[in-house]
Amino acid sequence: MTGFITRHLFLSLLAILLVTPALAGTNLPDTIVLSPTILYQTKRQILQRDPAIRPAYENFINEAKQALDASIESVTLKKKAGPSNDRHDYWSLSPDWWPNPAIKNGLPYVQHPGEANPEASSDIYDRSRLSRMARQATTLALAWYFTGDELYASKSTALIMAWCSDSSTRVNPNMLYAHSRLGVAEGHHTGIIETRDLIRVVDAALILEPSHAWSKSTSRKIKKWFSAYVQWLMHSEFGRREAESRDEHGTWFDAQVAVYALYAEDIDLARTIIRTAERRRIVRQIMPDGSMPYALKQPRSRNATFSTLEAYAILSSVGERLGLDLWNWADPVGPSIRQALDFAAPYLNPKKKWPHGTTGVFNPYRYVPLFRRAALVYKDNRYLDYLNELPKAHGARDNSILFY
Predict the structure, then answer these.
(1) Do 252 and 211 reside in the same domain of the chain?
(2) Is 315's pLDDT higher than 60?
(3) Domain stops at, among 182, 211, 234
(4) Is the pTM value of this prediction over 0.85?
(5) Helix, coil or strand: residue 341
(6) What is the pLDDT of residue 395?
(7) Do residues 180 and 249 both lie within one domain?
(8) Which pairing describes strands 97-98 and 110-111: parallel, antiparallel, or unpaired?
(9) What range(s) does the Alginate lyase domain occupy (predicted)?
């Protein structure tokens, strides 16, 4: 039944569109994290057939075409509901918790710090669905902006509506059952970090606003969902505990609230989050030498360090939209985002040994956008030099060159 509903939703949206692609996005897109200026510049380069970005653009369009054929994702597609018995509740497994080998049914699960249980990324749970939906919705929205092809806008809109607004498929605006520890706890506050993927969905929604697939009614419904989620984040016990975290979880909590509040038009809350981040995050988390002790204590400390920097970049992007410069803010005794970036930057290359504790598997390509953005913000090509240390074959087709 759910599959029929989501297919019907997509076809209904498609039926109202002008099927002939038109030149989309004649104005700057009103994005929050992605730079409107860079996106507009890239669009001009595409129209001019600039060979410098051609490999990356062709790779990107191939990904967009694949996303057109992908299934629409929803939390209601899991085979069984989680602890609440409501399929609309998001449910995920805490990634480093494993079945207990000493007990026949594996319960209660036990923690293996830093070791990812592949069960957590299976479609038993919703984590991978959320990740796929966010990636595909964003790719398709950007493909519409670059090409004007309403097929991309229609599919992206359907994905976002299925996740956030369609009454038969939408997710409930809470994370009570994220990071479940089977036999131990139905959920954990650390699971809130998983909805950072929705930050990309916000930018996708903003990009789509001028398309034929999107409407004022759609905007109201999606903003209503994000407003409800912000209220849960700010007033729930899980939200309070996550906000108190001094590692990447706390920084990502702030980044999410800032983006979602700004999108839902709660400007005062977004501004408060950015202003308090100076003392609450930068001063408390970053040392004068740029190290972040709470990140360095994590089982996968290199990942935690770069992930925290990524969250700082998103907070700083929200600050830009509000006229608040978090990128360059510095405490009188020294701590700043740039110092933390400079501390970690030499170790983006995974071939370089990380001298600050355990590291685990590290994927540097996730953080390529961070370094591209830093090069622009700080007007310092040294950050691009770090990218040049990565395999060049990947760099030529790296999509982030289109967006940052």
Answers:
(1) no
(2) yes
(3) 234
(4) yes
(5) helix
(6) 55
(7) no
(8) antiparallel
(9) 74-354
Mean pLDDT of 67-86: 97
Measured distance CA(255)–CA(318) in Å, rounded: 8
Beta bridge partners of 330: 336
Question: Mean pLDDT over residues 200-207, rounded?
Answer: 98
Looking at residue 394, what is its pLDDT? 61
**Mapping DSSP to helix (H, G, I), strand (E, B) and coil, where does residue 110 land?**
strand
User: How far is it, in rounded angstroms, from Cα 237 to Cα 234?
Assistant: 9
Asked if residues 205 and 260 have their Cβ atoms less than 8 Å apart, the reply is no
Sign of the CA dihedral running 323, 328, 331, 337? positive
The residue with tokens 């004007």 is 148
Distance, in Å, from the CA atom of 183 to the CA atom of 142, rounded to the nearest integer, reads 42
pLDDT tens per residue, range 180-197:
999 999 999 999 999 999
- What range defines the domain where residue 294 resides? 245-404
Are 136 and 230 contained in the same domain? yes
Q: Which residues pair with 91 in a beta bridge?
A: 177
What is the domain count for the chain?
A: 2
In three-state secondary structure terms, 343 is helix
Quote the CA–CA distance of 289 and 225 in Å, as a whole number: 41
Check residue 358 and give its pLDDT: 78
What is the CATH classification number for the domain harbouring 124? 1.50.10.100
Residue at a domain's end among 206, 234, 262:
234
User: How do beta strands 177-180 and 91-93 pair?
Assistant: parallel
Domain membership of residue 17 (yes or no) is no
Which one-letter DSSP state was computed for residue 365?
Answer: G
Using one digit for the tens of pLDDT, what is the confidence trace for 87-140?
999 999 999 999 999 999 999 999 999 999 999 999 999 999 999 999 999 999
Residue 55: inside a domain, yes or no?
Answer: no
pLDDT on residue 364: 94
Q: Say if residue 168 is in the same domain as residue 257.
A: no
Contact 5, 168 (CB under 8 A): yes
User: Among candidates 6, 143, 14, 153, which has minimal Cα distance to 73?
Assistant: 6
Antiparallel, parallel or unpaired: β 110-111 and 177-180: unpaired
Do 250 and 386 sit in the same domain of this protein?
yes
Based on the domain organization, do 281 and 401 belong to the same domain?
A: yes
Tell me: do 157 and 280 sit in the same domain.
Answer: no
Per-residue pLDDT of 333-342, as tens digits, reads 879 999 999 9
Q: What span, in angstroms and rounded, lies between the C-alpha atoms of 210 and 165?
A: 19
Radius of gyration of the chain measured on its C-alpha atoms: 21
